[in-house]
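Protocol step 4 of 6: structure prediction from sequence.
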Amino acid sequence: MKIRTLLLSAILAAAASADAATPSTTPELEFVMQLRVTCDPAVAVGASATGHRQTIPITGGTFSGPRIRGEVLPGGADYQLGHERSGRTDLEAIYNIRTDDGVTIHVRNAGIITPTGEGWYFYTRPVFEAPEGSPYAWLNDAVYVCRPADEGMPGGVVLNVWRVGDPYDFDASVQCPDTVPAKVYGPAARRGKVETFHYNATGPDGKTFKKRARVYTPYGYNRKDKSKRYNVLYLIHGGGDNVTSFCDDPRSPLSLTNVLDHLIADGEMEPLIVVMPTFYPDDQNIGTNGMADAIALTREFHKEMRRDIIPAVETAYNTWLEAPDSAAVTASRNHRAFGGFSMGALTTWYQLAYDNEAVGHYIPLSGDLWTYDAEGRKQSVEESARWLEDRLKGTPFANDFYVYAYTGSDDIASTPEKNLIRALDSETSLLRYRGRNANVQFFMKPGGKHYYGDINAYLYRALPTIRF
């Protein structure tokens, strides 16, 4: 009795708090999936003390929706109880479904069919049990309604399922505090060091050539002290910029060096190493074909990361990389982040798409994903979202990565990036913006523009949230 009283008190308190915080709104329905379920003929038990009982075996079928698709597994059944006086039938279907990437989900779907003056009232309330930690755990945390589709199906039934929820205000959900403490614009009392690092890179022709990157090491870093290991963040500049832009762009009132020093000194994040390379063959060489060459360079940069940059940098500094080989790069991926601004953000999305085995954390700053069809036509944002998911499916770390995306409301890339995040949320299941198992965060700084002053402000907010 005491437990029941405490539970009731908690529910009432939560309801009172919700009423005080938000006005009542009419729930909205979000389409989740359509199930096409095949069945065998009913097995009748006949009249019983509670009604007319029959069981309809479920033999298979398929399902599909914006974020999920797969097959209905045989072996379930719809248990029906009819009431002769009212004409109502109580339904309870119990079965399993399996997604196309191999995740089994249990379904229990109860409801009623009853005659009305205009036909039939046929609604059910499905409850999903998806494995925790899977890409479909979001199914566990909502209420759903289901009814037959307008179309029928011989030997089965077609059902549509919707999620019940409050109206979703995406634009309001992405707003980010726009203040950076005044002290961060000046140097910290204890400063890290930025130095130039040279390494050998291999071009498409197989020839080796020299490249450079800028490397930030935090205050107190001692290369000889092997007892302390550091996570590593790679940051790629924007188009037309170079390896010095994050820390030394003369147009920027906020240096990344100051951001890093203050975050570490204030205990907002653990000390880390930041590497700032370039996707160009040298500092500012876009190529003879301009933007076409630049896009190709961003798309191929992941090869240089795994083959040349990570082994060279992370064996020269105290990191989590155990050896300069590909297997060690993969083994240490969760101690590595990759981000970039503008064209660097495009490089970041391509890194996720082509080699998420090398990096566990991604920070695209004011830039979206560009994909092209076989004829070279740029695809829609929805097609790009689905392309990215298709690239991730089947990889060993398809469910083990995080995206920390930022931009500004006055940034020329704000709308494309916002549209991409919205498409990832609606069109994919592996990249989740909402829910308890979300692995994508997206924030927009009010008034933020497309330059390093604001980009470094985004990093001031993003870096402490990285879950190395």
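Step 5 (inspection) to follow. The first helix runs from residue 2 to 21.
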